[in-house]
Structure formats: C-alpha cells, structure tokens
Amino acid sequence: MKDYKMPVLSISKFSNKDFNFLSLSARDYRKLRTNNQNTIKLCDLLETKHKVGKEIGSESYMPKSNHRFLKTVNISKNFLLAESTFEYCKPINKVFPRKNEILIAKDGGGDGLGEVCLYPYENKENLDSISAGVLAINVIENNRYYVFGILKSQHFKDYIDLNTAQGSTIRHSKVESLNYEIPFPTKNNHAEPQKIEQLVSLIVQNIINKEEQIKAKNQKIDELIERELQKNQKPSNGFTYFYPTISEIKQETRLDTGIYEREFKEIDFLIKNYEGGNFFIQTNKIKSGNTPEVRILGNNQRFKYLWMTPTNISDYGGYNEFERIQCDNYNLNKDSILLINRTSKGGKGEYVGITSFYDASCFGKGQHNQGIYRVSDYPKNTLLFLTCFMNCQIIRKYCTGLSIGSKMKEIKSDQFLKIPFPNFPEPKQQEIAKEYYNKIDKNQNLTLENYLQKEIARNQQIGIFQINMEIFELREKLGEIIDKIINDLPIEINLNW
C-alpha cells in the first residue's frame, strides 16, 4: 500500500546553495511502507541469472510465422500468459522463456508497468521469445508460488511505480524489480509462519489451475461444436467456392470482401448444411444498450445498478476484473447474453461478437451501453448454448468476415440476425453449455493438506463462468493476506470461504 507522508522541508533547505537540485514535487517524497522487516531481496531468491528480452525491429514481424514474440501486452492481471494478442516474427530473437519462469513487464505505461505472469510452457523448440520490455526470472522452486503471489500484489506494483522515472508514455524500470524486498510471514502473522507462506502458495496454485481450466474448457467447447458439425452434414457434393456474382453483391449491398472470402463461405456452408437444421436469433429478442445519466464509482445505496461495457467482457466470454461502477438505471433484469458489437482493441475484427452470459442471480439488475447488444427471452440452456457457440473459433472467424468498418470493426443488429446457429439436439447443447456454466457446491472441511487436491478436482467439474467468478474472490482474499503480511498483522487460516 502507498504511504503519502510528506517530509517537512525546512527553510534552511530553501536557502541552501543546492536548492536548484531540490525537487518540489510531492511525488518525489512518497514512501512505500512495509512494517514487516523479515524480507529477502528478489535477486537473492533466483535459481539462475535473470533474462532481459531484445527488440527485433519492425521488419522482423511475420503474421504467418510459428515464432511468437512475447511483449508487455501479454502480461496482464491474469496469473498466466495472456494469449489473445500475440505478435509473430522471424526466428531471430535468442532470449527464450522457460517453463515456470516469472515474466515481469519492466517497461510500460499506466497499470501495465510492474505486471507479472507465469510462463507455462517448456518452449523446447524456442518458438517463444521475449521483447526488451520483459524481464524473465527463475525463482527458487520452494519459494516460487509464494514469491509469485507477492509479485502479483499492488505493493510490488507500487514499488516499481515509485522507483521508476517518469516518462511521457512508456516508462522504463530497467531491473529495479530485482531490488524489491520480498516480505515473508512472521510470528506476528501466525504462530507458525511457514503455514502462512504455504497458504499463499496454495491460493496462487489454485488460481493458476483455474486459469488453465478456463483455457481447457474453451478448447473442449470448440472441439464438441466442430465435431458435431463435421460428423452430421447433410448428403451433398461438398463445399465449392465461387467468386461472388453481381446479383449476390446487390443482395448483400456490400463491396468489402469479408463475406465473400473462402473461409467465411466454408463456415457458412458447414453450419447451414448441418443435418439438424439451423435457426436465427429472432428480431424482437435482440436489443441495443444506452448510457444512463448518472454513473458513480463504488458501491452506492442510491445508484445500485451494475454498469456494463465491452471492456468488462473478456476474450473468452467471461468477465474481466473491473472496478464496480453503479448507475441510476437498468436494462438488464433477467438472464441474457451480451454481445460485443464493435471492437475496442485496436480494430481487430475477431473481437466483434464475443459474448458473455449475464447471470441475473449473480449480478442482479444492470445497465449496458451501446457497445453491447443483449439477447434474452430464451430458456437459460439456450442462452448458454448461444454463448458457447458465439465464442467458438469458427464463429470468431465468421464474425471477423461479417464485421464492417476499417479502424473500428462493427456488426449491426441486423447482421447478428444473419448468423446461423445449428439446431443441435438438446443433450448436445447441454453437454456444451455445461463446460461454460455448471454450479457445484464449494468444497468443505478444507485444510492446508487437502486444499489443492480437492480444489483441482472441483475445478475440472465447474463451468467457466463459475471459475471466472471464483478467481475474483481468490484474488481479493490473496490481496488481503498479502497486505497483512506486509503490515505484520495477525492472519487466521481458514480455507472454507
């Protein structure tokens, strides 16, 4: 946490001959408070020497390459590598991350500076390399998850912020993070401090496993949908691609190439040739959003409705961790799906159409803006299936072709109505939807000894939506524990939250 205590500046300093070098900026006198004196420098907890990435030059980027160039944008609030915005390049960079190394965004602006993630791959073929803005460290195995948990704290980010020179856009912390003093639990925290260290490590590993399960369940949804489509095609001569005709262009009233490309046509044929038939969202069941007159940050008794925008919806159709904003009106009061109708991430068309399930029992009443369409008045199972289908890879590509615009891609409501949905049998829809939404009671009688085993088993059963919401809870709990470690305050061990 930040301590903004300002030292008193005596008049003698103002008359000192070195006055020209005296800073009058309040920022230069901020101090980072750490009551816990049981600390070890991060650099003394490394198994091997740290690595600093390299730049490759704009001419080295190659969209079709298998070599990924990891940048600070791939290090987010998530505990694992963010994989939705990779850049690809020629195999010229020689700085390669290895499994379980911690990647630190040493350069950046805003909240990105000082963010960290865990690199989860062996990378034996050196297909991944890191940019100059990234620092890779290999922490001693016994301390790895505890140290990682501390580095994910606001305290570490504040340390980097305070010890990094100001910049116009990008700030460069160099290797200042290696000087950070990692606080370890003391007897003021607990009679057996090692149990607190174990507690932090277990929570971190649970969050990591939950993020792994989100990825695995999304892949399973893709596989289930594609397999069902591929195995149940109507008898036909198969797909044949033709260039668009004048009559087709007149009918579509569009000259952009997206809907006329081979990939778009192949997906369209695959869905419409499904032997179970297909259906479309009904016109009266898709609604636009609007911005309320009053919005306020934080909980408020008067303005109690949740404000939703496209930035709240994650790339996999869950929810990003967001500051709770309340508003004075609502247009969400029942189970619905929320569809992003325009890009907010650099104009990439694949982000248009990403869909999340708005669970009224979880969020209550809310309001969404014009960047989102909502669909409701379908049975819950149908809404969940629509959510899964809209987020699968084939529809991501389909929506890229369907979207219009140059800098900011967009899909209008009438275009969403043209998306064909396969009429899968009800059991198949439920099987798919279960990977996204599946409520299971929380584990009971958890101890330090059985916590991780039981949680990993449960993570395999619950849905993406439930995992997503539980990650928020665990991050908050972890933050509270780390704050008490830093401030040397008592910590109760209770895993049955």
Describe the structure.
The chain is of the alpha+beta class and about 500 residues long. Helix content is about 30%, strand content about 15%. The chain folds into 2 domains: about 40-185, DNA methylase specificity domains (Adenine-n6-DNA-methyltransferase TaqI, Chain A, domain 2, Alpha-Beta Complex); about 220-435, Adenine-n6-DNA-methyltransferase TaqI, Chain A, domain 2, CATH 3.90.220.20. The strands form 8 sheets. A 4-stranded antiparallel beta sheet has the order 4-11-7-9, with no helix packed on it. It has a 4-stranded antiparallel beta sheet with strand order 15-22-19-20. The two termini are about 25 Å apart.
Describe the structure concisely for a colleague.
This protein is α+β, with helices and mostly antiparallel strands and 497 residues long. It contains 13 helices and 23 strands. 31% of the residues lie in helices and 14% in strands.
Set out the fold topology.
Blueprint: E1 2-3, H1 11-15, E2 31-32, E3 39-41, E4 51-52, E5 67-70, E6 87-89, E7 102-105, E8 107-108, E9 116-118, E10 128-130, E11 134-137, H2 144-151, H3 154-162, E12 171-172, E13 181-183, H4 193-231, H5 246-252, H6 262-272, E14 278-279, E15 286-288, E16 295-297, E17 305-308, E18 325-327, E19 336-340, E20 355-358, H7 360-363, E21 366-368, E22 372-375, H8 380-391, H9 393-402, H10 413-416, E23 421-422, H11 426-436, H12 451-459, H13 464-486
Parallel strand pairs: 5-10, 17-21
Antiparallel strand pairs: 1-2, 3-13, 4-11, 5-6, 7-9, 7-11, 8-12, 14-23, 15-22, 16-18, 17-18, 19-20, 19-22
Helix pairs in contact: 2-4, 4-11, 4-12, 4-13, 6-9, 8-11
